[in-house]
Amino acid sequence: MASSTLISDTQPWKDLKDHVEDIKKTHLRDLLSNEERSKSMTVEFDGILLDYSRQQATLETTEKLFKLAEAASLKQKINQMYNGEHINSTENRAVLHVALRAPRDAVIESDGKNVVPDVWNVLDKIKEFSERVRSGSWVGATGKELKDVVAIGIGGSFLGPLFVHTALQTEPEAIESARGRTLRFLANVDPIDVAKTITGLNPETTLVVVVSKTFTTAETMLNARTLREWIISALGPSAVAKHMVAVSTNLALVEKFGIDPNNAFAFWDWVGGRYSVCSAVGVFPLSLQYGFSVVEKFLKGASSIDQHMHSEPFESNIPVLLGLLSVWNVSFLGYPARAILPYTQALEKFAPHIQQVSMESNGKGVSIDGVPLPFEAGEIDFGEPGTNGQHSFYQLIHQGRVIPCDFIGVVKSQQPVYLKGEVVSNHDELMSNFFAQPDALAYGKTPEQLQNENVAPHLVSHKTFTGNRPSVSLLLPSLNAYNVGQLLAIYEHRIAVEGFIWGINSFDQWGVELGKSLATQVRKQLNASRTKGEPIQGFNFSTTTMITRYLQASADVPADPPTTLPQI
Among 316, 318, 395, 383, which residue's Cα sits nearest to residue 356? Predict the structure, then answer.
């Protein structure tokens, strides 16, 4: 496919458009009765089982999707990513998060240089430093061990590490490694987030990790200055070097801030923020909490999927299959959303992380060449762990809009509970719902079935389930650090596949810039109005009215207030 050609102009795209009419004549009740079809739509790799037989798709559909992949040069684009080519063309950068979890002896090049040794230099430095902190050989300004860590960062510097931390908090090996330690994340510039984060913490035993590639991110640096003041007010200015470290590439600003540049951990411009959890952004705070050996297993799990993605034929390639099916649901069947439904509370922060990875990557309206797309791209992602979600939004999924669902189950619970005399264990109760919900969505319930059950006639339409609602099921053997890494990489690569097919740049994020630049204007106005009484100007009537009300209602804030920290 020529680079300037839209994928929607290709014959395989047009064939799939025509094929939609054939699919509309089918129902999942009938498709699932074909055992050969169902068998062919099951894939297993490294302990993970994917079943996509509940997709509104036939074997002909998948063949047509593979032809679409060929037309989109999917294999070539995957190779270009792994080869370190500058596929992020708008920022002229390589996209090499796979290098972050590559084995030490791997060779992955960017601009003619093998970057893997650089990655491992940082990993070795993280291992060494985190072990010093965890063993008590690195102590705070008053000689006390640093048992508590606050990681300051936002977006990709927060959501990914938080997802992994939450997933490991209840995992037996990780629990043992983290005993006596706490890890908290400070992301929002809202002072309430600061208050909640530092409540119950003692500056004497707290290490603050400031995560900002450029050391200029507005929210992150304001929060960093706030926690620096929290430390200084308790321990004095000299304590900063003992209680604050950085994940950044801007060593000059790190030093100016008061942090020893030797205690700054690097990452590279070929690491996108939302793909950075396997860099020092995530590995450093997670190693401080759980030890490097646990985090290394997480990296190995991700690496396993990286190799699978790169080498496995598309017919049995889990991320490729999931990506192609997402394109089918969004651009052909017209389903813009996706529900991510992990049946384990340990993955409660997984959907919010994938929300960012997916929607920031693929929420684009133009092709990689800047041509407006004549079709919808990107998915609206949301989700909650089962069974909580069942008592929240499943009503809409069953009887309202059609929303394709990802059901994620785990064979072995991190924390099994057995009660004598119960019909099933707590985990079996959970998994009963994991197995039942996809079938309920697929089969539904017909008016005839309801009439046979003697349902009152006036309630039949209310209790009818149309069914034919697509889902995939992903079954993990357990949820240890390795499995968490696998799951992360599956979704990262799935999202890249979608972008490669749509012909967009999944690795830039210009859409986040405009609001930030407008906020700069507002910030200047608020300062000028509070300190000099200057009138509000340069905004439309609506914004002027809102700012005026805000300033009038908060007129008791002094023009030059003394330093005040949260009090809880």
Answer: 383
Q: What is the mean pLDDT of the chain?
A: 97
CATH label of the domain that carries residue 229? 3.40.50.10490
Spell out the residues 6+ positions from residue 19 whose beta carbon is closer than 8 angstroms to its own. Answer: 60, 61, 64, 332
Q: For 473-527, how does the pLDDT look when each residue is reduced to its tens digit (9 = 90+)?
A: 999 999 999 999 999 999 999 999 999 999 999 999 999 999 999 999 999 999 9
- Give Cα separations from 184 to 193, 207, 277, 344 (angstroms): 11, 11, 15, 21
Query: Is 400 inside a domain boundary?
Result: yes
pLDDT band at residue 568 under the 50/70/90 scheme? confident
* Number of Cα atoms under 13 Å in the Cβ half of residue 265: 29
Token couple for 34: 């074909």
| Cis peptide leading into residue 387 (ω within 30°) | yes
CB-based contacts of 139, cutoff 8 Å, min separation 6: 145, 146, 242
Residue 9, in any domain of the structure = no
Tokens encoding 552 = 């009038």
Q: What is the DSSP string of 460-479?
A: HHHH-B-----EEEEEES--
Spatial distance between the Cα atoms of 141 and 412, rounded to a whole number of angstroms: 44
Which domain, by its residues, includes 556?
A: 517-567
Angle between helices 350-362 and 159-168 (to 10 degrees): 150
Any idea which residues carry the catalytic annotation? 360, 391, 516
| Judgement on whether residues 475 and 335 belong to the same structural domain of the protein | yes
My answer on whether 179 and 45 are in the same domain is no
Q: pLDDT (tens digit, 9 = 90+) per residue, 139-164?
A: 999 999 999 999 999 999 999 999 99
Question: DSSP letters along 323-335, please?
Answer: HHHHHIIIIIS--
> Any idea what the Cα angle at residue 83 is, between residues 94 and 320, rounded to 5°?
95
Residue 356: inside a domain: yes
Dig out the tokens for 412 from the structure.
């072995």
Contact (Cβ atoms closer than 8 angstroms) between residue 21 and residue 461: no
pLDDT at 442: 98
Residue 483 burial class via C-beta count within 10 angstroms: exposed 0-12, middle 13-18, buried 19 and up = buried
Q: For a pLDDT cut of 90, what percent of the chain falls above it?
A: 97
